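Please review this pair:
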Amino acid sequence: MLLIHFKQAWNLIGQEKLFSSLYIIGTGLSITVVTALSIVYYIRIANIYPETNRDRMLTVTSALEESPDGDISSSQLSYMTVETCFLPLQEAEAVSVIYEAWGREHYVQPEGSREQLPVTVKYVNSGFWKVFDFRFLRGAPFTEADFQSGIRSAVLSESMSKRLFGAADATGRYVSLNFMPCRVCGVVKDVSFVTETAYAQIWIPYTVDPDCKTFRFGKAGTLGSFRADILAPSAGDREKIRNEALDNVRKLNATLPERIELKLMGQPDRHWESIFRLNSNEAPDFTKIFLRYGLIFLVLLLIPGISLSGMTDSRMERRLSEMGIRRVFGAPVSRLMGQIFSENLLFTLLGGCAGLIFSWLLILLCSDWIMTVGQGWRSIPPDGTDVVFTPAMLINIPAFLITLAVCFLLNLVTAVIPAWRASHRDLILSIKN
């Protein structure tokens, strides 16, 4: 029966080309923004190269130091805090520590050239390469021994390696970073800026900076410029790791002077929670966040849904005589409503396909704007950095299922009232019409 209804709906598209085109395009445009937002947030939450372990990760990006006299400071973590509370975690598979050298500008100098190329550098520890699953094209990450010794080793992205050394193998060669030589130990596949935590063009040990371990502030020196990303053996182990980390924080607080207390404000976060933590001095209110985004999605669907429902109702007015005659010959109301639902569903599915394509174009054409405005990224793309969305990020089963679910919901909103009215009109008035 459903197949018959779809065949009738397909014939209707050919008979009412203007209405069908307007309905499909209207549906596509109404779905576009919802699907685009869904894809963007899916990219931020799903396991995406090289952050393929997001479902097993815990993150600590900031903390709050509070003293009994009411003095409060908040920022990232000092090395003392990281070393005391997170690096010793016994339940963790690996701990990545990143030194955020905010405000620094970095330049590389190609061999035999006076040109200075701006570059994004990330200061990391050896555990970084275990938490994040980079694909090494040549060489390997710097070793723990290199890290502890503060040897100036560097891992390059593929595009940076080609820019500096062409097609030649860069491993074992030296790159001049801020006029200081660094030995290239490995080259990795390029990373998209949408994986912001792992993104860089050059990765070096943070131990090359002699000031990183001593830089701290707050009355007790618990705040600084570090963040920790913790990899659990499995998703089920995250709670044990969280409890161990909080126990370490309690032990640290017991040693702080003047009854100063370090607070993590609900951290360590699961990865999806960390993307909503935008302020260092307060924990996100997830109830408000979910209500806000739910309301946005509802409005984005409801307003175009009402407009499309009006179009459907107008079309039903022109088909009242058809509905009346079919009812006279014994067609049950359920069959008439089923036909209207099937017709609308086909239109909505076609519009959904159009909306999915429109959403991809919107993301690709406005990628820099998406990364800069209001999506929760902590930093904006550096100058000269292209925001890349790979086909694997855009073409995926979750995005398709989200679009399909939106189509069914929009079809329900747009078809239920017109279908009910058309199938329950007075028979005499319907035939007379």
The chain has a mean pLDDT of 81. The two ends are 28 Å apart (CA to CA). The chain has 15 helices and 16 strands.
